[in-house]
Amino acid sequence: MPTPQRGISLLESLIALLVLSIGLLGVLGLQTQSLVHNRAAYFETQATNMAQDMLDRIRANSEQAADYALTLGDDAGGSGLPATDQSEWVADVATMLPGGEGGIEVNNRRVSVTVRWDDTSSPNDIRQIQLVSEL
């Protein structure tokens, strides 16, 4: 009478557990990448909203559009509504985005708003968006 095999079920179970573990590690890697890219997309959305906010402020005060000019990375200066709008906007950009900076170029009736920030998804990388509008 032949002896029954022993340990085969245990070996199959261990192989199945190994395959399952590798699959779960793959899912974990995908989840991590998803979180990184979601965060990058969030920052880009915030930057776009902030640039649009400044364009709206300039449109609301188009008579003083030239006073809104601001070099990228500089602090707001001057007095009046344009300076107030600039200082609030620069503070918002710096608060909402990592390493956030903003700049505004005004050329006749054409306004260009630039927002730049550090990209947290890849080290030492800087992201930037620029919105341009005619007044």
Quick summary of this structure?
It contains 2 helices and 3 strands. The protein has 135 residues and is α+β, with helices and mostly antiparallel strands.
Question: What this model shows, in words?
Answer:
The chain is an alpha+beta fold and 135 residues long. Helix content is 51%, strand content 20%. It has 2 helices and 3 strands; from the N terminus they run H-H-E-E-E. It has helices at residues 8-60, 81-96, and strands at 101-107, 110-119, 125-134. It has a 3-stranded antiparallel β-sheet, with helices on one face. A hairpin with a 5-residue loop joins strand 2 (110-119) and strand 3 (125-134). The longest helix has 53 residues, at 8-60. The chain is rod-shaped and about 105 Å long. The chain starts with 7 loop residues before the first helix and ends with a strand. The relative contact order is 0.15. It comes from Vreelandella lutescens. InterPro entries: N_methyl_site, Pilus_4_PilV. This is Type IV pilus modification protein PilV.
